[in-house]
Amino acid sequence: MQNSLATQVAGIRLRNPTILASGVLGISGSILRRIAEAGAGAVITKSLGLIPRAGYKNPTIVELEVGLLNAMGLPNPGAEEFLNEISIAKKGGAPLIASIFGSSLSEFSKVAEIVAKGGVDAIELNLSCPHVNTTGLILGQDANLVKELVKNVKRKVKIPVIAKLSSNVSSIAEIAKAAEEGGADAITAINTLRAMAIDINVKKPILANGIGGLSGPAIKPVGVRCVYEIYEAVKIPILGAGGVTAGKDAVEYILAGASAVQIGTAVVTRGIEVFKDVNEEVKEYMKENGYKEVSELVGQAHKA
């Protein structure tokens, strides 16, 4: 029996259900191409804004027993400057998704127009960065604003738009539903969680920004719960993100309702070979359990 890892998200065909998450090695076309060639089903850029942004001073990342804590500050060259990298990235043979952020509804739309004209395959709206003083997170916590923001962006571009949501809300299902009503083609859940680490010797926060975003295995149960709740609230595809390090993690997200998963921290801890490894493990699970297509697994936990 042939087992196919191919899946679809918002009309985009992926050769397998693993995607490079935004914020990890996505700042140059050559690196994005390399990760695509290493086996990722799609790749996402680091979040791009309207103008260049330097980000925070070091230290910006802390390795913990349960994952990574980072406060990079959304460093990026600006959307216009990044256009030069798009054609290089797409030589990897995998769909390219541009992550974008803005300080207002109109700024999100402007950035979306820029990256769309550059030839990316889809746009992911960063509505959930937990440690940056932009309006992205504020917008992502208000259902009405999320609906309006997505609607505005959809008016400006013809490619799929994905809303990346935060778990730091009273009801992520409500926010996801608002994004769907605004015209979102898919949902990403979740981003990192607000967290902090303190150096007990100097008695100060380790990160220069103080507060950062926690990623990795520690947040997987939160991510799986969010995907599960969103799946019952919307009809559009979901991308699961948070703590995927092995095939069993990807399968858990897919059973909860995700059509594909994003991998970030594990790229840092396991290297870019993680995409190939996760895919092989998912395929083995499918073979052992009698599934031919990834789509047959999506949302199965809701039928148990």
Summarize the structure.
The protein has 304 residues and is α/β, with parallel strands linked by helices.
List the helices and strands and how they pair.
Layout: E1 7-9, E2 12-14, E3 18-20, H1 29-37, E4 42-44, E5 61-64, E6 67-70, H2 79-89, E7 96-100, H3 105-117, E8 122-126, H4 136-140, H5 143-156, E9 161-165, H6 172-181, E10 186-189, E11 193-195, E12 198-199, E13 204-205, E14 212-215, H7 220-231, E15 238-241, H8 247-256, E16 260-263, H9 265-270, H10 274-289
Parallel strand pairs: 3-4, 3-16, 4-7, 7-8, 8-9, 9-10, 10-15, 15-16
Antiparallel strand pairs: 1-2, 5-6, 6-14, 11-14, 12-13
Helix pairs in contact: 1-2, 3-5, 5-6, 6-7, 7-8, 8-10
Task: Describe the fold and architecture.
This protein has 304 residues and is of the alpha/beta class. It is 35% helix and 19% strand. It is built from 10 helices and 16 strands. It has helices spanning 29-37, 79-89, 105-117, 136-140, 143-156, 172-181, 220-231, 247-256, 265-270, 274-289; strands spanning 7-9, 12-14, 18-20, 42-44, 61-64, 67-70, 96-100, 122-126, 161-165, 186-189, 193-195, 198-199, 204-205, 212-215, 238-241, 260-263. Helix 6 links the parallel strand 9 and strand 10. Helix 6 packs across helix 7 (220-231), helix 7 runs parallel beside helix 8 and helix 8 (247-256) packs across helix 10. The model has no long low-confidence stretch (mean pLDDT 93).
